[in-house]
């Protein structure tokens, strides 16, 4: 029982990090119908921006995080939107899918060639000390990760719901045509969404890199989990992505512990197919109308 | 115009027949693998370009075809039997995999087929008793036709060319038959196609299943060509590569996959000097191409032709104005 509790809590902790990536993913989808197949790489790369800041430029670690965040928001937010996504938007889904897949390969190769092919240790924000509750060993890191992601998600929700800019962003996501007529600068709101996505990815990167180490090949599993979380929860809901992320984190942890390691990834994959077949709008999502 | 087209086709075919005699063994091998991948890309073009259903599972179907061929021919059965089984298997799996396409669209379909490719890879890697696991299957025999052994590279090339021409002709027939027009109708406007009496459920499923069968055929040609298969040849990356062939060439154009497969297969040969940077350059080129011309190379070409044509009878704005007055 205590083992089980322990697995649940550490699952929730990694799940909350997955949720950050998944929320960014759904935000992009809502704002611009962009399916970002490079989302995993968006989480992988900021860790290297920060490592460049702290090791190459010699910045102290907190400053390096700020540096990494700024670079990520500029490159993965602004440049990505302006140079890659914007020209392709009028041409439908397929070119964006292809381009983001290629972008993922490009980012992976760049990190491998110009930084290192080896896994890099990454300083943890929280101590690895543990304490015991009901026989379950829980680390400060797990609790810290959970708290930081929860704070980020609550802040995001408040921003989206309570500020003028946030509501304009929601309006843009729901109906860009009407939003524009009502005086919302649609392109700017979409740009903000891309920047928020980059910031969320950076946060996820900072939290997850101490656990998995920073490595060029980390993006693929993280991206896959982000897709899974977004689909399981519901593509058009921030709440859904949150629930999906937590759920996947826990299921992944449990299946690694109790099922065969050879078919570990098969569990979430089958879950994905079942969800898409039975409830394509996701557990919490509402179905999108179709147009003739 | 039509005669010109036929003449061009004959010239290309003649070029393909002469080609191996100008090439060393390796050149012939590259040409053969171009033919093999074109067959797979052609199948995906039906699913994606004509019927508008995205699929990331083409490599898995190639895998199914390749493994059935390898297992059966190594057990002493004739190649043709293994092709029938491999294509049949792909057809059935394609029908099943197409089922989600009846309910969901676009990105969801991409994820379902992506999950399928991952699952197929896991089975190929883990079921050692059947597939040889991570080490794969070695020593796949090449078939012989009418008592003539095809172990020689050039002979196998001609065999592949024959199957390729056959596959292309049936594809041409398929997309120009009333059936094929239904595929296009599905892509352009599923609801209108439905209201005009097209059984969209059946057509969607068939688009998947026939596309999958072409993947199986391609796998069945590939296994004897390389004579060695392992699970790494059928991963998601290969699915993406085939998808890339279709999109770069121009999806929905009959000759799109031919051109796309040629580029994707030949490009590594041209980029050989770049060595470690090869994948980087490749990925950057794809991003660039998608940003600049999302409809693929043939789409770019037809846009250019349309632009030239429309210039010829110049717009007479003055006459229009006069007619209105």
UniProtKB/TrEMBL annotation, chain A:
Q: Which family does it belong to?
A: Belongs to the binding-protein-dependent transport system permease family. LivHM subfamily.
- Coarsely, its chief localization is membrane
Q: Which UniProt keywords apply?
A: Amino-acid transport, Cell membrane, Membrane, Transmembrane, Transmembrane helix, Transport
From the Swiss-Prot or TrEMBL record, state where the protein is found. Cell membrane
Against InterPro entries, the record matches this protein to: ABC_transp_permease, BCAA_transport_permease
Q: Which organism is it from?
A: Sulfitobacter porphyrae
A Pfam family annotated for this chain is BPD_transp_2
- Asked if NAD is a keyword of the record, the answer is no
Q: What is this protein called?
A: Branched-chain amino acid ABC transporter permease
Matches recorded under PANTHER family: ABC TRANSPORTER PERMEASE PROTEIN, BRANCHED-CHAIN AMINO ACID TRANSPORT SYSTEM PERMEASE PROTEIN LIVH
Q: What is the recorded membrane topology of this protein?
A: Multi-pass membrane protein
